Amino acid sequence: MTRHAAAILLTRSAGPDREVYLVERSKELRFFGGYWALPGGVLGAEDGAEDDPASLRRCAVRELFEETGVLLDPALSATPASERLRVRRAMLGDDHDAGVRAWQELCGPHRGERAVTDVCRIVTPPFAPTRYDTLFVRAELPAGESPEVWPGELVAGRFVRPAAALDAWRRGELMLVPPVVILFEHLVRARDLQEFDAVMAATAAGYEAGRLHHVRFSPGVLLASLRSPTLPPATTTNCYIVGESELWIVDPAPPDADEQERLFVLLDELRGAGARLAGILVTHHHGDHVGAVAATSARYGLPVRGHPLTLERLRGDFTRGAPLHDGDVIPLGRAPDGTPGWHLQALFTPGHDRGHLCFRESRYDAVLVGDMLSTISTIVIDPPEGHLRTYLASLTRLLDVPMGTLYPAHGPAVRDGHRLVRQYLRHRAQREQKLISVLAAGPADAATLLPQVYWDVDPRMFGVAARSLAAGLEKLAEDGVARVDAAGIWHLLPGRASSTADPGVAR
Fold first, then answer.
1. What is the topology classification, in CATH, of domain 2-208?
2. What is the DSSP string of 13-44?
3. Do the Cβ atoms of 5 and 59 come closer than 8 Å?
4. 195 Cβ neighbours under 8 A, 6+ residues apart
5. According to DSSP H, which parts of 1-115 are helical?
6. CATH of range 221-415; options 3.60.15.10, 3.30.565.10, 3.30.390.50, 3.20.20.70
7. For 85-94, what is each residue's pLDDT tens digit?
8. Helix, strand, coil content of the chain in percent (nearest 5)
9. What is the pTM of this model?
10. Could you tell me whether strands 319-320 and 303-305 are parallel, antiparallel, or unpaired per DSSP bridges?
């Protein structure tokens, strides 16, 4: 699903003193919670038709007033403070229609779209089910206007110099949404706003033509979302390029030659900027993670490193590197802020796959978790390769690993990795309790259990759910909670009517 949106670079001053206004999103928000972003939001019916660029400009103007109280249209500059307060309260209230009427009454024919300049239009890469087709515009803060954020979905706002903001981001002191990182990097390099507009328009055109975005949720980790033969709802696997001057490619996924070429264009671009490709890392051997391993290794002469169980199962001609075991360190050189001794550490996390590794980055505590967790679905545990008790133990271990941003193989990154781990543990405990409660009603075979235990799953996915059910039943047998007879009927053992899974809530 694609939604139309607008965001605005509100600037003041000029040259090296130019500042841009950023707003801090509440940590509780699902989409970029805890990050600093540009004011903006989703196109509303009151803004106009989706296919009219003027509608998105009106959206940017409306969202700017709603979020900061700034009116861009000079015709509205004399609006009394009491009237501004009334309208803004209505727009932020629970009655959406009343807010729309208040805004339209305030604006009249003056919608403010002429006060902004288009910069570029970018669509979110396909790593999430909901993508945003966003028009980025810019405007100078009018004389006499002063932005003010009211706590709610946003918790703060401030003007920042782009170069200083990027320095703070590299130090790990400021979390910037990926589009802001891209915009600020180009803004710092541009001689003036006109050059910035031209460069960003060319960059956006490249994205539309298929070039990969430079998506970074934290410094030193670039997310490249590539089409792969994975399970729905995912359609892509995230390949990660980690490092600055020394780059490691984690899970080059696509078997398709066209998708591989997109990855190679990105890698060549990074090499052209002075970086050196050091090698390839693989989290595990599943096909939607390793489709380009052999091609990438052959093209660039790179060694491939992973758990011994993974390396022995990889196919194709590639340069075999040293195997990785739990705790092994992969040097990265200097961190983006210049800190020496930067590295990745391998973490052995079996359960989804017998040779599964996660990789923890040492400067910002980012963790690349492969298929341990996803931010768009649950993880399938498919016996005999998958083992639920082992998987839960690996999840629990991740709670003891210092973790900031969590980078999954499928879905966008999240800033609070431990929170997602706890959610996964709770979900598994709840699913196990559901299985036990169904068995408590009477013995049943797997086919009878499936629609009752996975009542919330699309029946079209029952084939996948059946493998997860098999993993859950296997765990109940290992825990002495249930047994299966010769006819394939499962029985709950006496006195075992509650889950033994650790929900992880207390940690």
1. Nucleoside Triphosphate Pyrophosphohydrolase (3.90.79)
2. S-GGG-EEEEEEEPTT-TTTTT-EE-SEEE--
3. yes
4. none
5. 53-68, 81-92, 96-107
6. 3.60.15.10
7. 999 999 999 9
8. 35, 20, 40
9. 0.93
10. parallel
Each residue's pLDDT tens digit, 137-156: 999 999 999 999 999 999 99
Query: How far is Cα 408 from Cα 373, in angstroms, rounded to an integer?
Result: 6
Structure tokens at 112: 């403010």
In terms of DSSP H, where are the helices of 190-330? 193-208, 257-272, 287-290, 293-300, 308-311
- What are the sequence ranges of the domains in the chain? 2-208, 221-415, 427-492
Return the ∠ at Cα 128 (arms to 126 and 132), rounded to 5°.
75
Instruction: Give the residue with greater pLDDT, 401 vs 31.
Output: 401
Amino acid letter, residue 116: V
Domain covering 427-492 in this structure, CATH number: 1.10.10.10
- Give the C-alpha separation, 413 to 418, whole Å: 12
Q: Is 324 exposed, middle or buried (0-12, 13-18, 19+ CB in 10 A)?
A: buried
Structure tokens of 89?
């309260």
